[in-house]
Write a structure and sequence with these properties.
Strand 9 and strand 10 form a beta hairpin. The protein has a two-stranded parallel ribbon with strand order 1-2. Helices cover about 10% and strands about 5% of the residues. It is globular, with a radius of gyration of 26 Å. The two termini are about 50 Å apart. Among the domains are: about 160 residues, Pectate Lyase C-like (3 Solenoid); about 80 residues, Pectate Lyase C-like, CATH 2.160.20.80. It contains three helices and ten strands, in the order αβαββββββαβββ.
Length: about 475
C-alpha cells in the first residue's frame, strides 16, 4: 500500500475556518453579479498584468456571479475565482493555468479543451461540467469547505445547494488528470472515458458508477475509494492501487490489469473475464463446431462465442474463427499466426504481445482493442469484399485501438476506421492509408515516410508533421 500523501487526509474543519478567515474576511454580500462588459474590462487589466504593462493587475473574481458569461479562449491563468459562481459559463479553450477555483460553483460550465494545469478546484461544485479533452494535470480536486466572515467575527459556510467537491455527472472524456488529487471527492456517474489519470490520487473518493472506459490509470491510487458499479472496460490499470476499495458490481472485463495492489478486496460481485475451464465445451470442439457453422452457411454447427474468455498464451495457429465473437477476450501472448479472423469481433480484446503474423483481419471489429506489442507481419487489415458482382465491402474497424509502436510498414489500411486510435511511435512507412479515417488519431512520433495519405480524413489528428 502506498504511503499516504499529507494533502490527502480528511478535511479538518477547524483548520479550514482558521486559514480561510483571513482570506474571506469581506463582510459584503456573498455574490456580486457582473456583466460580459465588466468581465471584458477585468480581462484587459489582467492581460496587461500578463504582458507586464503599467496598470496591469491579476484578475480577482472572488465571489462574483459570472453565470452564463463567455470566457472562451481567454487567458486567465493565476486568476482568483474563489467562491465565484460560473454556472453554465463557457470556458472552452481558455488558459487557466494555476487559477484558483476554490469552492466555486461551476455547475454545467464547459471547459472543453481548456488548460487547467495546476489549477485549484478544491471543494468546487462540478456537477455536469464538460471537461472534454481538458488538461487537468496536477489539479487539486479534493473536498473543501468555504467559510465567510459575517458580523462579530462569526464564520458561516458558503455552500452551493449541491454541496462541496461535487463532481457527479461531469464529462471528462479524454481529459488529462495526470497527478491530479481527487481524494475525498464525490465523483458519482462521471464520464472519465479515455481520460489520462496517471498517478492521480482518488483516496476515499466516491466514484460509484463512474465510467473509466479506455482510461489510462497507470499508477492511480484508489485506496478506500467507492467504485461500486464503476466501468473499467478497455482501461489500463498498471501499478494501480485498489487497496480496501469498494468494488461491488464493478466491471473489469476488457481491462488491462497488471501489477495492481488489491489488499482487502471483496471480489465476489466483481465482473471479471471467464476462465477457459468454465466453458461449456472444450475449445477444440467450439472451434470445430464453428467451422461447420461457417461451411454450412449457418445450417449446422454453432457460431463460436468466446466473449469475455481468458485465452491468453494459447496456441491458435491456423484457426478459423471468422465471424466469431471474441469481444472482451484476453489474448495476451497468444499465437494467432495465419488465422482466419475475417469479420471477427475483437472489440475491447487484450491482444498485447500476440502473434498475428499472416492473419486475416479484413472486416474485423477491433474497437478499443489493445494491440500494443502485437506482431503484425503480413497481417491483413484491408477491406473485405462482400456479395458478388461488386456488391460492396466491409472496412476493418480499429476505432480507439491501441497500436503504440506497431510495425505497420507497408500494411494496407485503406478505408480502415482508425478514429481516435493510438498510433504514437508506430511504423507506418509506405503504408496504404488512402480513404482511412484518422480523425482524432494520435500519430505522435509515428514514422509516415512514403505513406499514402491521399483522401485520408486527418481532422483533429495529433502529431502530424507541420511542414
Amino acid at each position: 500500500m502506498s504511503a499516504p500523501n499529507p494533502g490527502d487526509e480528511p478535511l479538518d474543519v477547524d483548520q479550514a475556518k482558521r486559514s480561510l478567515e483571513e482570506i474571506l474576511g469581506d463582510e459584503n454580500a456573498l455574490w456580486t453579479k457582473i456583466t460580459q462588459t465588466r468581465l471584458n474590462e477585468i480581462q484587459k487589466i489582467h492581460d496587461d498584468y500578463v504582458k507586464g504593462n503599467l496598470g496591469g493587475k491579476l484578475a480577482s473574481l472572488k465571489f462574483l456571479d459570472m453565470s452564463y458569461l463567455d470566457f472562451a479562449g481567454r487567458n486567465l491563468s493565476q486568476a482568483d475565482f474563489t467562491g465565484a459562481r460560473c454556472e453554465y459559463a463557457i470556458l472552452d479553450g481558455a488558459k487557466l493555468r494555476a487559477a484558483n477555483f476554490y469552492s466555486a460553483d461551476l455547475r454545467f460550465a464547459s471547459f472543453a479543451d481548456a488548460d487547467l494545469t495546476r489549477a485549484v478546484l478544491r471543494g468546487s461544485c462540478l456537477r455536469g461540467v464538460n471537461f472534454t479533452n481538458a488538461n487537468l494535470t496536477e489539479c487539486d480536486l479534493r473536498e473543501g469547505l468555504l467559510m465567510k466572515a459575517v458580523g462579530h467575527g462569526e464564520l458561516l459556510p458558503v455552500m452551493t445547494d449541491a454541496g462541496t467537491s461535487d463532481i457527479d455527472h461531469a464529462i471528462m472524456r479524454q481529459a488529462n488528470l495526470t497527478d491530479a488529487r481527487v481524494s475525498n471527492a464525490y465523483v458519482v456517474q462521471t464520464d472519465l472515458s479515455d481520460a489520462i489519470l496517471k498517478n492521480a490520487r482518488f483516496l476515499r473518493a466516491d466514484l460509484s458508477h463512474a465510467n473509466f472506459t479506455g482510461a489510462d490509470l497507470d499508477g492511480c491510487d484508489f485506496t478506500e475509494a467507492n467504485l461500486t458499479g464503476a466501468t473499467f472496460r478497455g482501461a489500463v490499470l498498471t501499478r494501480t492501487v485498489l487497496d480496501h476499495a469498494k468494488l461491488d458490481g464493478a466491471n473489469f472485463v476488457g481491462a488491462i490489469v497488471d501489477s495492481v495492489e488489491m489488499r482487502g478486496l471483496n471480489l465476489a460481485t466483481v465482473r471479471l473475464p471467464k476462465h477457459i475451464a468454465k466453458l461449456d465445451r472444450e475449445l477444440r470442439i467450439i472451434v470445430s463446431d464453428h467451422v461447420r457453422w461457417l461451411t454450412s452457411a449457418g445450417k449446422n454447427g454453432t457460431q463460436a462465442n468466446l466473449k469475455e474468455v481468458n485465452l491468453g498464451g494459447l496456441d491458435l495457429r491456423d484457426v478459423n474463427l471468422s465471424a466469431a465473437d471474441l469481444s472482451y477476450c484476453i489474448l495476451k501472448d497468444a499465437d494467432l499466426r495465419d488465422g482466419n479472423f475475417m469479420m471477427t469481433d475483437f472489440s475491447f480484446a487484450d491482444m498485447r504481445g500476440a502473434n498475428l503474423s499472416g492473419a486475416d483481419l479484413r472486416g474485423a471489429k477491433l474497437q478499443r482493442a489493445n494491440l500494443t506489442g502485437t506482431i503484425l507481419n503480413r497481417t491483413r487489415f484491408d477491406t473485405l469484399p462482400v456479395g458478388t458482382g461488386g456488391g460492396g465491402s466491409v472496412a476493418t474497424n480499429l476505432q480507439f485501438a491501441k497500436l503504440r509502436n506497431a510495425k505497420l510498414n507497408g500494411t494496407d489500411l485503406s478505408e480502415a476506421n482508425l478514429e481516435g486510435a493510438d498510433l504514437s511511435r508506430a511504423d507506418l512507412r509506405n503504408a496504404d492509408l488512402r480513404g482511412t479515417n484518422l480523425v482524432d488519431a494520435d500519430l505522435t512520433d509515428a514514422q509516415i515516410e512514403g505513406a499514402k495519405l491521399r483522401t485520408a480524413d486527418l481532422r483533429g489528428a495529433k502529431g502530424l508533421p507541420t511542414d
